[in-house]
Amino acid sequence: MKFTAMSFTCPSCGAPQKFSPTKGMLVCEFCKRETAIDPKNQPIMEYSFHQALSNLEAEESKPIEKEVSCKKCGSSFTLTPYSFSSNCPYCDTPAITDFVQELTPKSMIPFKVTQKDARSRFEKWVKSRWFAPTAFKKYLDGNESLTGYYLPYWTYDSDTVSQYTGLRGDVYYVTVTKTVVENGKQRNVRVQEARTRWTAASGTAYVNFDDVTVGASKSVSRAILSALEPWDTTQLLPFDEKYLSGFEAEEYSIGLDNGFEFAKTKMYFKIEQKIRYQIGGDKQQIHSVNTQYNNTTYKNILLPVWTASFKWNNKTYNYAINALTGKVVGERPYSPTKIFFAILGASGVVGSVFYFEELKVWINGLMVGM
Ligand SMILES: [Zn+2]
Ligand SMILES: [Zn+2]
To answer: Considering its fold, how many domains does the chain have in total?
Structure first.
């Protein structure tokens, strides 16, 4: 499908202007002329979840490759499905296109952390990982640049009402007599032993949620999307293409309804805490929870992320930096040799298969870190 691309040109020299995170303005690549972005005077709105779902077409729109012709140099190129902002691969002029999905983003947080700052945070993060393989540190010394992405997210508000049943456990102590052996002699001692008295518990838990954020992109792993949180949604501004200029941007590939299923899982953590608190006692068992989601609203937003990837031993490791807070997250390659020798050095034990098995479990558990 053919799309026309829009871009912003410098009023002085006609070269393309890109959004600058440091200035918060459009800046000309060529003559450095700055153009202020007037913030749109619109409130950040919440939209009815159920109304949107009933208006959405039953069929989810299929991903289409967009054929774009560059306004500056005339070359044609294709954008990957869901992408709606990129740069011409031939002349680097920003290309922003129309949306394909029915629900378009109405608000966004522009980039605050610059590429340079993101890179130095990323380097620090890698260097603090002692177990990273030498190849990874070398990769950083090359001039690999980070890519700036506006990623699609859903936010959900909901007033939840949960009916629950379960058990409350109260611990009490009883004195029992036990036989112990001391210096070869048997002796009876009286000891305190803990017991739990379980009683039935049920009730209703009310929890209200504001802006539960759920990543709506399939191009970044769920683990990384979640680890990038928290996002301060009070920083949201009305959507404006000018903030996209020079950056990649994606539309949602996880729909409004599927996104809400992820949101429910996140909400359940808080609901469960509240139920445990209400049941009280020393221990709690939860047998059933039936939650109603009332007054559910959503927003379709864009959030700024710097990304990088690293190929090592036939596997690609992905990294991301929250371009609002500077938080670095990612999958870390570990050098088993380095870890192995570190343990040998620490324990003085030489060569043991046991350590390798232990390490494998340990490494797998640490793959996604902050
Ligand atoms: Zn200019
Ligand atoms: Zn071009």
So the answer is: 4
